Amino acid sequence: MPKKIGNGGYVYPAKEFLDTPDEPIEWNIQSMVHSKGKTLIIGLTKTGKTIFAIILALSMVTGQSVFSFPIEKCRVLYIVLERYRDFKRKLRDMAQGMNLDNLHVLDYSKKPLFIDTLDTKGYDTLKEAIAYVKPDIVILDAKYRTTSKKEVDEQATSRWINNIDSLIENEGVGFVIIHHSPKHEYEELVNKAAGSSILSRWADVIIGVKRVNTKERKDPRRLLEFVSNYGYEPDPITVKITDKGMEDVSGQVQQNKLYEAYQILEEDLKKNPGTRMTKRIYDLADKHLISARTFWAARELL
After folding, report:
1. What string of DSSP letters covers the chain?
2. What local confidence, expressed as pLDDT, does residue 254 receive?
3. Domain boundaries, given as residue ranges, for the chain
4. pTM, whole model, 2 decimals?
5. Which residues pair with 71 in a beta bridge?
6. Would you tell me how many other CB atoms lie within 10 Å of the CB of residue 38?
């Protein structure tokens, strides 16, 4: 039998520790959002984070699958902390014909809702809203409107995290939090390079939203990238922003890559007919930034 230590720790004999099954994860959206979990949606400004968050909210309240990920229908509280008119327009366009009985919206866009200060007003407001709606998942849009410090402040960040954790533990909710991240922080979080980042260690799942074409702001394509502390991470998904939200265009993108690889390989084999195929494919993959797997698939078409 394990020995309880302190306020929540246990000492196990090693064999018993290895034989003890992991606590099951109750996913509301497989690999993205779960009960009592912490999901960060991160990205630069104007990349479609709110649109993606609305998609997640509508999927959870209606039970309709998002990008083929399994859904567990649940109750959602969406907290709007900025540009509520823009949010209302997006929600109206995207939710036409849907049953929204399980979705509630808290408009708190006129003033910030600080939950990183010693003053508990912001925390108490969140707690009151959660007690009233009784949601399974809370979506917070956006994090910067809940923080009093413009500069990085570890003490304030720790208070913010402790307050969110307290709400998760005491109210039994999961959180999805939109975070406007500068470019360097995005790369650190998504590429797991921020060993010292409090947020990267705290979040269960991080979903990055970034432009596919950084040189053309009107390009509607976005790349969704996933980082998970549970070991399984879905492959990145290429989507296109539309009036109805986001459309998964990963299949078309892969077809385009396959066609491009086919043309490159065909031309290269004409110029280098005697070169070993394996070496050529890996050389071409490095040169053109197309996966070797795609080149091998193109090879089968020649």
Report:
1. -PEEETTTEEE--HHHHHHSPPPPP-EEETTTEETT-EEEEEESTTSSHHHHHHHHHHHHHH---BTTB-B----EEEEE-S-HHHHHHHHHHHSTT---TTEEEEE--SS----SSSS-HHHHHHHHHHHHH--SEEEEE-GGGG-S-SS--HHHHHHHHHHHHHHHHHH--EEEEEEE--HHHHHHHHTT--TT-HHHHH-SEEEEEEES-TT-TT--EEEEEEEETTS--PPPEEEEEETTEEEE-HHHHHHHHHHHHHHHHHHHHHH-TTS-HHHHHHHHHHHHT--HHHHHHHHHH-
2. 57
3. 26-248, 252-301
4. 0.79
5. 29
6. 21
**What is the dotted CATH code of the domain comprising 26-248?**
3.40.50.300
Tens of pLDDT, residue by residue over 175-201, are 999 998 877 777 777 765 444 478 888
Between 226 and 189, where is the model more confident?
Answer: 226
Here the tokens at position 157 are 């960040």
Considering only CA atoms, which of 28, 253, 284 is closest in space to residue 136?
28
245-258 pLDDT, tens digit per residue, is 888 877 655 556 66
For strands 221-228 and 237-242, give the pairing: antiparallel
Nearest to 222 by CA among 41, 37, 2: 41
